[in-house]
Task: structure prediction
Amino acid sequence: MEIIIVDDEAVFLMIHENILKRHGVIFPIRSFLWGTELISFLKNNNSEDKKFLILLDIYMDNMDAWEILAYLDARDFKCKFKVVIVTSSVEIEEREKSKKFHFVVDFINKPLNRDLVEQIMERAHFE
Amino acid sequence: MKPLQFENHFLDKVPLCILRVNKNYEIIISNEASYGVLGYRIDEVIGKSFFTLIPERDRPKIESFYLNLPFSNFSYSESHYSSDLYSIIYHDIYTDEEGITVFLKKESIKTNFETRYRVLVENLPGAVYSYNIDKELTVIHMSPKVFDLTGYRDIDFIQNKIKINGIIHPDDQKNVQESLLQSIKNGGPFELEYRIYRKSGEVRWIKDKGEIVYYKEGLPSHLMGFWIDITERKRAENQSHKDRKLLEAIIENSHSVIFVKDIDLNYIMVNRRWEQITGHNRENVIGKKLEEIAGLEIAKNYYEDDKRVLHEGKVTYKEEVIPKEHSIGGSVFDQYFLSLKFPYKDENGKINGICGISTEITAIREAAKMIEEREANLKGILESVNESIWSVDKKLNVIFTNKTYFEEFFFFNGVELTKGMNIIAAIPEKKEKKKWQERYKTVLKNGQSLHFTDMLKINSVKYFFEIVIYPIKVENRIEGVSVFSKNVTEKADLDVTSKLYQSLFDNSTNEIFLISTDKFLIKQANIAGIRNSRYSAREIQNISFFDLISRANHEYILDGIGSVISGVVPSIFLEASHLRKDGSSYDSEVLFQLFTYNGEEFLSAFVTDITDRKASQKALTESELRFSQIFRENVTPMLIINPNNGQIEDCNPAASDYYGFGMDDLKSMNILDLNQTFHTSPEQMPIVAQQVMNEGKGKFKFVHKLKSGEMRDVDVFCSKISIGNEDLVHEIIQDVTERNKYHKALEQQNESLKEIAWIQSHIVRAPLAKIMGLVQILQEEKEEEDFSPDFVLDAILDASNELDRVVREISEKSNKARHLFN
Result:
């Protein structure tokens, strides 16, 4: 499995990568500043043996999380992926909205911490 | 069983499943192949009954082999049974004195078309046949199942002992022949249904489905097909056809109006009675809605019920009337119907439409009406006669009294007779009580009517009555009595003059009292006086006239009377409030006058009840006063408008203040001068006026223009009032401009609050989250030696600055919102 962090603020990429590693996550971590980067990465790595856990920020310039989720939902990817929404928003509406996508396994508030890392690693478990 | 082991080893090499069965059909030996063929391992097979492994239908064959041919070697290799994928074949069966040895073989059905075909044919519920197209219809093949169908064996057909034509029902033979000839001519498959005779003579229906087989040259060679017994289906069809016919006939000929509508309220079915009542033919109605037939106005009345039935699944009952003017069948009566509507559902319980059944109940209604009318007639007659009529039951409880007797009884006894009251108990005088009890009892006992003249003396006045008491007989039993009593006092032997005065005195509609001048006791009162006072004729004697006057008037009346008695004035008119026995009061005018009778001085009092006059005067004054007070003194602007031309007929000072015009100016204006809504869309004015005239009131939203030119939003509450013969509109103006402004501000405020919430959660949280994350890293890194926190600290500073900027922006935004709100 690989972990992909998508956030349009470099500081968060740094913070989250740091916190993940600190709390014993051994999977390779990739960071993208743009949603479009994520999409092209998935297209290029679209084989059945690939598994990705995507930590996705909601509000991003260029392409926001809802557009990305809709794109992922509309297409049949061979690779397996799960999405955790990681946002500074505390609005309940958005949490509900994200539940509509079956591959969204969790919705957490920034910043990550030990408990949240354990929680998402548990939820993101691929069979 | 040691010796068998060698054998078993040997047997295991054999590809066939071998079963050795003892006399009790228990399996005692088997081999490895049993798993492959039967699906059981050897240890599972040993000890099992043989018959649990083979189909039940094969049991008799196996048993007969063993019983009938116990000592011969017998093999039977044709019998088989099958599952979906393969069949198990009895390859060999040997019987001997010790038991049976069976060799079983498994064959895949795919590789064994012959077997599969045969299995198929033999398991079909019908018979498969083929026969030549020749004169004799020679049978080529017939499957054994034909026995179940016809009672003849397959061999009977094949050996031509039974001819196909011979078993077809004579009534169907021609049809079958013609159809087959047609098929031969045209080619292709055929399907026929006809009757045959079974061997037992029983008639069965069969379906014959087949195809013509042709020679290469194109000539027909033979027929192939199968027969299947469809007798049960035919019977059911027939029955349901009959049931349906019967139901249709019942519905069609029902005297009730019956219809069925689908879920969109289109008619699916109507009966003849429906056609008669509505005057529409079903051809023009089926598939249409009621509104297309009768117009939306009429249809609306029915739709409400229809929708309730459809949506709530409820059954509704309703009485409906078709007035005789609207009758299509030319009925001379109003026709009454009891209508029942209910949903009809499909087999899943889903509502599919509505059934309605209306039954005419005009006759019942007419009968009920007639009875009511007759009762009313009878009552009218009884009430209108100048005679007292009453009846009592066996226990002397009152059944009925007419008005005359009610009043007479009250006049003499001071008691209001009501139904169920014991008439003897109601009479206060002991002597009278006894007299009447005996009279009633005599008639109840003898069953003969009783005629007599009665006399009642009250205060030197004698009253005479001619009375008849009749028994009431129901089926020859006496259930009570009815009494007819006529007051014949006038006829009695009074001298002419006194009779005249008595009559005048008694029949005057004025209440007349003769009062003693010393203690003001009532010496005599006329009928009107007694009645209105609610005392009985006896009771009123010798009470004080002042008992009939309310206490507040006593002094003033006493003064007035004093001036008459002392001779200051000959007579005096005084207004007084009169008291009745029951405590109620009425306004009256009393004329007091002195007169002498038999040398004794009396005061006469003529009393006129002026309650009605007073009340109507009072009501009029009050309502005028009330309205004018409400109108003039109200702080809410009010106008009175003539709905015909919009002229302002009147206004209140509040309206003058509000609009800024003087009262007189405003009264000379037209509502169009104020109402800007009418100004821009003048067609609204007659609509508004019409609505108020029709419904009596209405609330409207307009824009009114003040003298200053300012436009104001107003709610106008209109109501119809009648002044004289004119219908006018009373308008209450409520200024809602501020309210509307407030609402708009509130809406805008909501918008900005929403924005603030968004900012809070997206923008403020972001730098905060950054700081929290960075601090977390700092906290855990500080222990490590070669860690340089500069980068992290810089990032924290940036995030803090960002947070500061955002907080400032928010407070600016909320200030703006506050301004809007204020």
Notes: The longest strand of chain B covers residues 461-474. Residues 521 and 543 of chain B are 5 Å apart (CA to CA). The mean pLDDT of chain B is 79. Chain B touches chain A at residues 757, 761-762, 765-766, 768-770, 772-774, 776-777, 780, 795, 798-799 (CB under 8 Å).
